[in-house]
Each structure stands twice: as structure tokens, then as C-alpha cells.
Amino acid sequence: MSNGPTSFLDLKSLSKTQILNLFERARQLKAKPGKLLTTGERVALLFFEPSTRTRMSFESAAYRFGLGPLVFDGGPNTSLEKGETVEDSVLNVAAMGPRFLVVRCGDAVDLEALSKLVSMPILNAGWGVKGHPTQALLDVFTVQENLVHLEGLRFLILGDVRHSRVAASHFELLSKLGVEVGICGPDEFMVQNPQAKIFTDLEQALSWAQVAMALRVQFERHGVGNVGQESKELYRQKFGLSSRSLRAFSKDGIILHPGPINHGIELETEVLSDPRCRVLEQVKNGVFVREALLRELYEN
Length: 300
Ligand code: NCD
What we know:
Blueprint: H1 16-31, E1 42-47, H2 53-65, E2 68-72, H3 86-94, E3 100-105, H4 111-117, E4 122-127, H5 133-147, E5 154-158, H6 165-176, E6 180-184, E7 196-199, H7 202-208, E8 211-214, H8 229-239, E9 254-256, H9 279-299
Parallel strand pairs: 1-2, 1-3, 3-4, 5-6, 5-8, 6-7, 8-9
Helix pairs in contact: 1-9, 2-9, 5-6, 5-9
The chain binds N-carbamoyl-L-aspartate (NCD).
């Protein structure tokens, strides 16, 4: 695991064996609770960007492991309001001595530099557009539960790939596991990635794929103000997942979305009741994958 002896900022240095072992551990924790720590240690959850799933998932994972969560919820009533920087906030919480720092922040924060200034591991819980490694892990764990064989699997990432940290982490993860990656969306959302097969047509992409993961259109990262209703409607028609567009998708396929969902843009609400959809299973699995990671890092 990279960036300092034990910090977890990306997936680059994880081997395939380490990833599969982590999944196995998560599978066991899902089947049966693990041993609880009785050391009274804590984990600080520092969220400088909005979050529902990731923050509460790490919090649940901490309770399941016996680590007391200290939650810093970035906004009103914190010293950020008085102009304290993210870096100072992290260093001050680190001074309280938690066992881990779980951080969500923007690209401007140098988590690598911070990880060298603190004495405990930092875990990336969503870092600007750079990456969101635990999300990618829980997505693929969910796929593995359903489709078992990852080698050669055809995994389609749909939509705002360019602005998605989830996609960035998937590019790191999927190639290590021998998974084939396809991307599909409007030109302005695509990236050049030699690993990825690029589709411009949703029907073709869905006919190719065994897993289809829709991404939230990251309006807040586009920096162009509000996107007009017209272009949202165009996006929905060309790239939105719906019962109609999903006719082209394998009946044994898996549909994913990391959440939060823009209903009626990248995904129609009806898709959530499609038997191929695993969106809430992803959320459930997130707790076990993060618990497995905390336990792994604690021991190493
Ligand atoms: C994602 C994130 O914050 O990067 N959500 C999540 O953590 N489940 C995806 C998103 O915001 O679109």
C-alpha cells in the first residue's frame, strides 16, 4: 500500500493477491462479525467535501472493528469558518492521536505531503478527481460476489469519466485484475486511456458489457455554472440507463452506480428495481470492504 509505510491514497501499489485477499476478508466479515478491538483507539473521519455513503460506511466499519469514530463534518461550526486551512485541521486532529485519518478533500490538498507529516496512516475517502480507491474496491467486490470470474470480464463505465474520481480508481484497479474496460459518454466526458475501449453509442456499449456502471454527472466539477435543461435531456436520451436502453444489456449483467444518483439524467428510477441492479448491495458491501481494509492496515 502506497505513500508512506501504511497510508492508503491510491491502488497503484496493491498487488492482485492483496486485492483478492482483501475481498476474501470482506466476504468473511460479511458472513460473520470479526473480533472487536478493546484498546479504546479511535479513527478520525475528516470530510471536507460532502458525503453520505462513504462517511457513514467508514463510521459503520469503525464500529464493527471496535475503533471509536471521531467525525469532522467539514462545514459550519468548525474552525474552517474562521479561515483555518484543511491542512491545519488535519494536523490538529492528528495531534489527538487517532489510529487512522480517513480524509475526503479536494485536489488542492496535498495528501501525500500530509501523510509524511503525521504519524498515522491516511486513508483516501475521495480526493478531488484524483481517486476514490475504496469505492472502486467495493464496486468490484460486488461484481465478484455475483459473477465470480473477474479475469476477462467486460466492465463498462458510463458517462462523466473525465471528472470522476471513481473512474480514475477503476482504471488503476481493473487492469490489475485482468478486467477489460469500456467507456461510453459524450466526447467532452471521455478520456484518452490506452486500456479503455471507447464507445460512442450506448446500445453498442451495453451489448459488449457484462457490467455497466453509470456515473453521476459531476456538475459541480464542470466549472461552467448550471447545465441547461436541454443538455440534460440530450444526455438522458443518448446515454441514460432506462428499461428501454437496457434491453441491449445481457440478462445476466450487473448494473452499478456509486451514488448519489441524478434521477432522470444518468439513470431512470425504474432501473433501481431491475433484477440486475446492485446499487444498494454496493452500499452494503462498502462497510465490509472498508472494515477489511481498516483491519488489514491495523495489522501491518
Ligand atoms: C462518489 C464520490 O463522492 O466520489 N460517491 C461516493 O462516494 N459514493 C461519486 C459521486 O460523487 O458521484
